[in-house]
Amino acid sequence: MPSLAHKRGTRSQIDAAASASQLRTGEVYLITDEARLTVGTAINAHEPVAKQSEAGGGDAWTWQKLPADVANSTITLAAATGLSFTAAANTSYLIHLYGALQAAATTTGAALAVDIPSGQVVGQAHISASATTIQTIEQIADNATTGVTSGVRAANTNIPVFAWFRVDIGATGGTVQLQFRSVVAGSVVTLKAGLTAMGRRAI
Prior knowledge:
Blueprint: E1 7-9, H1 11-19, E2 28-31, E3 36-42, E4 45-48, E5 62-65, E6 70-72, E7 78-87, E8 92-103, E9 110-115, E10 120-128, E11 134-139, E12 159-168, E13 174-182, E14 189-191, E15 197-202
Parallel strand pairs: 1-2
Antiparallel strand pairs: 2-3, 3-4, 5-15, 6-14, 7-13, 8-12, 8-14, 8-15, 9-13, 10-11, 10-12
């Protein structure tokens, strides 16, 4: 396959070349630190090209499916192993979760939250308490929930669950981990493998 070479440099190097009137109109350059192309529009100006994800032509969401059932019979939030990602510092994310959980008893509710390395988080988890009633747990602080759900429609049966979180990571990046708990000590809640998936996108 034939190769095509472009002049290349970091954004600051290409901007410096523009300041020195060293670009060519119509010439294509590679901005190496942004993995994008830019086109010279004059000897002292260039126009960077939008990436597919920025232009809306691709799926900006990244999804992962829970690989195995995860159970928790305590009222302490524990990791939903397999549903986490590495967040960049000073970056905001939207997180959605769609799936199913099971509870050992109809009087056993559940809660979901995310643990973040720094910054702020706000979100809600919605769990079907009956065929017509949805109960909500909210999160307004890291690794914590407010409110409780009173139970589920049926014991040991797949119950729909949906959650959303808005996360603003601070100066420290790191792992964002989905967590969950039972609201009744000693009564197990299980997130179901395959039926549960978490997606995120930077905003």
